[in-house]
Amino acid sequence: MKGIIHAHTREFSYDSKVSFQEIKEFCKKMGFSFVGLTEHSESMNKSKMKEFVKKCKKMSDKSVLFIPGLEFLTNEGYEVLGIGIKNFLQKSTLEETVKFIRKNKGVAILAHPCKYKKLPKNLDVDGIEILNFEYDGFFPCPKSLELLKELRKKNKNVFGFFGLDIHRKIHFRNNFIEIKCKMNEKKLVQNFKKGYFQNKNPFFSLSPQNNLNKISKIFCFFGCKVFSCLKGMGEVIFKILRKIKIIK
């Protein structure tokens, strides 16, 4: 079974341009059976969280399972994905956020670690994004791969994940997670925690333990650099088009 994690809907995240239905149609087209939604915590409160969980249940069917979750912004400025949770937490520290996610039977994943200049020395999470399409494209970030290596020296139960970070249709890409289990939210989250899955895209098939050889890591390094340059050029063009009012 294939699926994706790290996605935002316009119904519940302030900066997303895609709907529940559009994400569902994308998944059906790609053959993805589950979505780990991670709405921004800044867009949430307790009542809205209940509404979100109900929406996930309503939109789920035999073809696509929507797993509720949040992307928590912590007091220190880090962002942590809490996949498989149904309760809300006000902005808190990184440590308290991870504790909350675990207490609520979710999996705590540090989002896009390549974004941060510094990370706490005692970082304690269940996993990290070793690839985030918004930041890395199709190539695992070398910095994130090295971080995973260091974390696993202390704790073998920390795993690497491919995330899409869906906000717009341009993020509808073939970066996915393959997992052997029934289409059941509880079982999927348990398998995430145990590392019983494989990260895949058109270029890589990468275990959650990070099995890349040196040649592949060099390929990742240059791939990330090229993607970063192309993304930068695209953002400049986008700003120009907005300025001359060709696009809104």
Describe what you observe in this structure.
The structure is a single chain. A hairpin with a 4-residue loop joins strand 11 and strand 12. This protein has helices spanning 20-30, 46-59, 94-103, 133-136, 142-154, 185-194, 214-243; strands at residues 2-7, 34-37, 39-40, 65-67, 69-73, 79-83, 107-110, 127-132, 159-163, 176-178, 198-200, 205-206. It has 248 residues and is of the alpha/beta class. The radius of gyration is 17 Å and the shape is globular. It has two domains: 2-212, Alpha-Beta Barrel (TIM Barrel); 213-247. The strands form two sheets. The protein has a six-stranded mixed sheet. The termini are far apart. The model is unreliable at 232-238 (pLDDT under 50).
Name some characteristics of this structure:
7 helices, globular, single chain, 248 residues, TIM Barrel
